[in-house]
Structure formats: C-alpha cells, structure tokens
Amino acid sequence: MDSLILCGGFATRLEPITLFVPKPLLPIRGKPIIDYILENVSSNGVKRIVISTNSKFGDQFNYWKVHREAVNGLHNKLELIIEPTMHDGEKFGAIRGINYSIEKADFNDDLLIIAGDNFYDFDLSKLIGHFEKSRKPTIAVYDVKSLEEAKRFGVVTLKGDRVIEFQEKPERPKSTLISTGIYIFPQEMLRKFREYLNDKNNPDAPGYFVQWLIKYSELEAVVYRGKWFDVGTVDTYKKVFDMNLTPYVMKADSHQAKKNPTS
User: Helices 206-213 and 94-105 sit at what angle, rounded to 10 degrees?
Assistant: First the structure.
C-alpha cells in the first residue's frame, strides 16, 4: 500500500500563523502535526509515502523531509510533490490536488489518503485491515456527538459497515458520524478522480468526490472512537495545543497503538 498526505492548502482560517508556517508543520507538544501522521503511517507497513504541498511552502516541506528522513531512517521512502500554486486564489482544491499527485506519482498500488491537518489518537491498522478484507473504498469516520458540529464536515450515514449516504457540510445532518479525511482506495479506482473532474464536478472538498463515487461503487467505513481533531481554526489549534494529550501522544511516539488500541 502507498500513501498520500495532503498538505496543499493555505489554511486561511488560521492566519496570520499560516502566512509563514504551513498548517501540517505547526507544532503540537514539540512536534509538527504531520510527524504524528507519518509515524502512524510508517508503523503500518506502508511502502511509499508521498506528501503533496504548494510552491509557497515547498522549501519548508523539503527542509522538514530531509530532517525527518535523517532522524527516522526513512531514506528513499518520503517523496514530495509540489503543486504550482503560491496563494489561496490559485489553489487546486483537494480533489484536483489528489488527482495531480496521482498522475505525478504514478501510484501502482492501493492508496491511503490522509488530510495533513488530522490529529488523532487511533491507529490506522483497523482501517487498513478492514480494507484488505473487503477490497472496497473505505473511509475512517468519527462520532462528533453533535448535529451542530457535524454541519462543518462530511456527514456519513451507515448501514452496518456500508456507507449509504454522504452529505458534504449539510444544513440538516442526518447523523453525527463525520468523515475524518482518511480514505483508502483500491489501485484500480484511482482513475475515478480524473473521471470525476472530467465531469466538471466540484474540485474542492473530498466529500464531494465520495458523494459522487457512491453512485458507482460500494463504500465502507470504519468507526473510530478516542480523540480526533481537524486543526482548521485558531480556536481548535489553541485547544489542542493547550490540552493534556500525553496519553496518546506518548502512544504515537512509542508505536504502542497496535498493542493498546483505543478504538
């Protein structure tokens, strides 16, 4: 399995912080957000890790990449794809950015896609194991336990493990289960991103792609418990930065998630 970590946005809701530092490189308890994602991905046997970003922050990610490879012994494992965009007005949108990376990286394996602003305490082995059994597109979902909070996300309705409806930022959510921005797609379905864009669909939030894909394929979901944050606003970043996260940060650091699952 290969992986793609999405870091191509400009995080305007986090300005002025993100005028100078890309959101995935913002520190939480002494490490960038993306480090926690990287540790979880690399500890689950993923063969290839690709990070996509934009031209504005390309140098910062390249500096981080070189340092991370040296510290973690990840030589020849991390790859960087840089979208030719310098500001928010030029951004590709997440789905167009995913397709750009798929075509540039020429993935020839199943693909784990993770939004680079995810901060969570669960291990990906449960999601990967489910996908390997079903061989169907699979998404990680989380219960925010609030219909008002769910309005901010892609809302999932399940029947067993199957996704029967997906609403992107709905006015009236039918569920409090939301998409975490973590997906696995079989290699043979990666061409669907190009098909979606060729149909002139919304190139931005991945949820729109999921809504479209349900018409052509069965999708499944794995529900995670524990803690999950979309670090998208100053208030959320401050909350995560200030709260006591030691139990699951230590778990991520020591790769104990498989031994002590929280989900």
Answer: 80
Cα→Cα distances 26→10, 97, 120, 157, Å: 13, 21, 15, 32
Superfamily in which the 2-243 domain is placed by CATH: Spore Coat Polysaccharide Biosynthesis Protein SpsA; Chain A (3.90.550.10)
**pLDDT value at residue 14:** 87
Interval 146-185: pLDDT, tens: 999 999 999 999 999 999 999 999 999 999 999 999 999 9
Say how many residues make up the chain. Answer: 263
Contact 43, 89 (CB under 8 A): no
Q: Is residue 16 reached through a cis peptide bond, with omega within 30 degrees of 0 on the bond before it?
A: yes
